[in-house]
C-alpha cells in the first residue's frame, strides 16, 4: 500500500480490475498480514497505513465481473486508485456472488416482451 494517510473501514476508492473502473467501499478490514510471508499479524485492525498489507472485504457500487486469482489469474488482479495515483495493488482471494434471481425488471424491459 502506498497511501499518504490511513485507510480504514468505509474508505471508498476506485478499483481497476482488467477493464473495469468502479468505485468500491472497504466494508471491513479483516486482517493485517505480513507482506512477505502472508501470515496474520493482527485481526480486525482499525486502519492500515503506508507499507501495510491486509485482507479486506470490498463491496462494489455497481455490478462487476471478477474471478479469484487462484482460478483465473488475469481476472484476479486489481489496483486501487485514489488521489490520482495507484495506492494499492492486490489479488482477489474470494468472491461472493449475488443471487441472479433478485434482478429488477424495468418498464422498458417489460414493453419489449
UniProtKB/TrEMBL annotation:
Residues 1-93 form the GTP-eEF1A C-terminal domain. GO terms for molecular function: GTP binding; translation elongation factor activity. The keyword Protein biosynthesis applies. The keyword Nucleotide-binding applies. Keywords: Elongation factor, GTP-binding, Nucleotide-binding, Protein biosynthesis. It comes from the Eukaryota. PANTHER family: ELONGATION FACTOR 1 ALPHA, TR-TYPE G DOMAIN-CONTAINING PROTEIN. Belongs to the TRAFAC class translation factor GTPase superfamily. Classic translation factor GTPase family. EF-Tu/EF-1A subfamily. This is GTP-eEF1A C-terminal domain-containing protein. It comes from Rhynchospora breviuscula.
Amino acid at each position: 500500500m502506498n497511501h499518504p494517510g490511513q485507510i480504514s473501514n468505509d474508505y471508498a476508492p476506485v478499483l481497476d480490475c482488467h477493464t473495469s473502473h468502479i468505485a468500491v467501499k472497504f466494508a471491513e478490514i479483516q486482517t493485517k498480514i505480513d507482506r512477505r510471508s502472508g501470515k496474520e499479524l493482527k485481526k480486525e485492525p482499525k486502519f492500515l497505513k503506508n507499507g501495510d498489507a491486509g485482507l479486506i472485504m470490498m463491496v462494489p457500487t455497481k455490478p462487476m465481473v471478477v474471478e479469484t486469482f487462484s482460478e483465473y489469474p488475469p481476472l484476479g488482479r486489481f489496483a486501487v486508485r485514489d488521489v490520482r495515483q495507484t495506492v494499492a495493488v492486490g489479488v482477489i482471494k474470494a468472491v461472493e456472488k449475488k443471487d441472479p434471481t433478485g434482478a429488477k425488471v424495468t418498464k422498458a424491459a417489460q414493453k419489449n416482451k
